[in-house]
């Protein structure tokens, strides 16, 4: 039996000033985040007119994938749904169900494992199917792709272009960056039998693969966008602190590659293009940020290739020894205990 549609599943983002706080409340619901912190983050969005680029970029990427599907002769309509903002995945799945779909592939816009990067998308799938109820289609999530040659090649070319922007100066340091998570969440990422830390190990492997493809011998892997209370340890070092350290070591220019992101999330354009770039400028350092891969034609090719692994039985192309993970049905985790969400302490 074949597939009737592709559900493009993403994080979501506001598309106007009045949507910012409701969106942030959706993102943080149940987490006990103080309102002062929400207002602080809201200012980042208002800096860009209250609009996150993520929905537009997803729609552009969907259009590119639709063209690639047509070129490949694959009749598979693509539908867009989000976790945190319109179009909500529950509403999108209801529309797909009403159209008669029985089996649907799901592309989550994350290349990695871990709770936020993978299992939370499983929860989105489970929640959306529960909202639809009886008659909800079977949802098959596509696998993680951080080590796919098309992903690696697109990111490597973006790193080369960023170095060229700085004149290919020999002393320029390459810094790979990904969204930080609590150390406890990273320790719980992957199946328990694997020993945890799958997220940070995959980020390190992606950086290694991209650096090798781009011909870069010396590079760093750092983190960005931590949002938790200071007493909770998160993955470090932070990108801004690392720029300070590079300056202290005499590094005069830096290329930052957001290898953990597939598109220009608000975190990329704020934390890197503003905060990190401004800190580099304060030190008189050259700064260039590598583009995210979703605007590269190879990204659409990658998505279609992942689809064809299911529709045509294509073998999974990958460049690392990590298992091909993340492909599950109806929101089931990859394995028992895989990427368990953090248990929040009960309130008194």
From TrEMBL:
An annotated GO cellular component: cytoplasm
Catalytic activity: Fe-coproporphyrin III + 2 H(+) = coproporphyrin III + Fe(2+)
Any GO molecular function: metal ion binding
A Pfam family recorded for this sequence: Ferrochelatase
InterPro entries from the UniProt entry: Ferrochelatase, Ferrochelatase_C, Ferrochelatase_N
Record's subcellular location: Cytoplasm
Pathway participation: Porphyrin-containing compound metabolism; protoheme biosynthesis
EC annotation from Swiss-Prot or TrEMBL: 4.99.1.9
Keywords assigned by UniProt, alphabetized: Cytoplasm, Heme biosynthesis, Iron, Lyase, Metal-binding, Porphyrin biosynthesis
Binding site for Fe-coproporphyrin III: 52, 121
Binding sites annotated in the UniProt record for Fe(2+): 179, 267
Domain of life: Bacteria
Name listed for the protein in its UniProt record: Coproporphyrin III ferrochelatase
UniProt source species: Amycolatopsis orientalis
């Amino acid at each position: 039996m074949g597939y009737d549609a592709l559900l493009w599943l993403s994080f979501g983002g506001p598309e106007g000033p009045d949507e910012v706080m409701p969106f942030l409340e959706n993102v943080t619901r149940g987490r006990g985040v103080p309102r002062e912190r929400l207002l602080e983050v809201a200012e980042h969005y208002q800096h860009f007119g209250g609009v996150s680029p993520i929905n537009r970029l997803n729609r552009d990427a969907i259009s590119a994938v639709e063209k690639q599907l047509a070129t490949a002769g694959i009749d598979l309509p693509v539908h867009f749904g989000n976790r945190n903002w319109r179009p909500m995945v529950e509403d999108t799945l209801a529309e797909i169900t009403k159209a008669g779909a029985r089996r649907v592939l799901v592309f989550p816009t994350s290349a990695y494992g871990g709770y936020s990067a993978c299992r939370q998308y499983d929860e989105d799938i489970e929640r959306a199917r529960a909202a639809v109820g009886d008659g909800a289609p079977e949802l098959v999530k596509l696998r993680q792709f951080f080590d796919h040659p098309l992903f690696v090649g697109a990111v490597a070319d973006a790193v080369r272009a960023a170095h060229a922007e700085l004149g290919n100066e020999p002393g320029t340091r390459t810094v790979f960056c990904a969204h930080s998570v609590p150390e406890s969440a990273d320790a719980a990422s992957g199946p328990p039998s694997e020993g945890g830390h799958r997220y940070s190990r995959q980020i390190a492997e992606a950086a290694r693969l991209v650096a090798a493809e781009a011909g870069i011998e010396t590079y760093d892997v750092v983190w960005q966008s931590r949002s938790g209370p200071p007493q909770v340890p998160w993955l470090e070092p932070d990108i801004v602190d690392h720029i300070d350290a590079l300056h202290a070591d005499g590094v005069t220019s830096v290329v930052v590659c957001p290898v953990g992101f597939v598109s220009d999330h608000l975190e990329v354009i704020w934390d890197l293009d503003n905060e990190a770039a401004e800190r580099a400028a304060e030190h008189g350092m050259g700064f260039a940020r590598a583009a995210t891969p979703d605007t590269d034609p190879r990204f659409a090719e990658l998505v279609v290739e992942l689809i064809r692994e299911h529709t045509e039985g294509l073998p999974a192309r990958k460049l690392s020894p990590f298992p091909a993970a993340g492909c599950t049905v109806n929101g089931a985790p990859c394995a028992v205990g895989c990427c368990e969400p953090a248990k929040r302490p009960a309130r008194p």
